[in-house]
Design brief:
The chain is α+β, with helices and mostly antiparallel strands and 183 residues long. The chain has one domain: Alpha-Beta Plaits (2-Layer Sandwich), CATH 3.30.70. It is built from three helices and twelve strands. A five-stranded mixed beta sheet has the order 9-8-12-11-10, covered by helices on one side. A hairpin with a 4-residue loop joins strand 10 and strand 11. The radius of gyration is 19 Å and the shape is elongated. The N and C termini lie far apart (60 Å).
């Protein structure tokens, strides 16, 4: 599958659109369309318990991986909208006709997500106001971290999608190391 496209829907209706795509594909015998919603794991603290919960990374957006070119995908989306009376739109780069997610932007997301389209939690340490990620998908992305919320166990990561900078909240457990003093 060669291209990723992004469809915008009302937040909370992502799974309904995925089900509509699957129903449409079964009726029309289309087999080269894979809809998915990128998710993320974050820590959830309640009293003394820490749990991991999964939520949608980009609420209101459904990604579609397919080998269709832009023209065929727009026709596919138009027919899908007509069949299900859905209020969804296909995102594009500004006023241009380019609708497929650019390879560089796609690569960043692919490095963060696992095979289930989920960004798992990461862990690291902070020493002398410098964060070092030791495990998880954020390894190597320290330069993109804009803010760390130690008590919420999350971080804001800056990524670019459709040539716009977005801040995405991801799970990060940071341990503060005590400064080493010379004796």
């Amino acid at each position: 599958m060669d291209n990723w496209y992004v469809m915008s829907v009302w937040a909370g209706k992502e799974n309904a659109l995925i089900n509509n795509i699957r129903d449409y594909d079964m009726k029309k015998s289309v087999n080269n369309v894979l809809p998915f919603v990128p998710t993320r794991e974050t820590f959830f603290k309640r009293r003394a318990n820490i749990k991991i919960e999964t939520s949608i990374m980009f609420p209101g957006y459904v990604f579609v991986e397919t080998s269709m070119d832009a023209y065929d995908f727009l026709n596919y989306a138009r027919e899908l909208r007509r069949m299900f009376c859905n209020s969804m739109t296909v995102l594009s780069y500004g006023d241009s006709a380019e609708i497929a997610v650019k390879w560089e932007e796609r690569l960043v997301l692919m490095k963060l997500m696992n095979h289930e389209w989920c960004v798992k939690t990461s862990s690291g340490f902070k020493e002398n106001n410098i964060v070092t990620i030791t495990s998880g998908p954020l390894v190597g992305h320290e330069g993109q971290i804009k803010k760390i919320y130690r008590h919420k166990m999350t971080t804001l990561l800056e990524i670019e999608i459709f040539e716009q900078t977005s801040l995405v909240e991801l799970g990060l457990h940071v341990i503060k190391r005590s400064d080493v003093s010379e004796i």
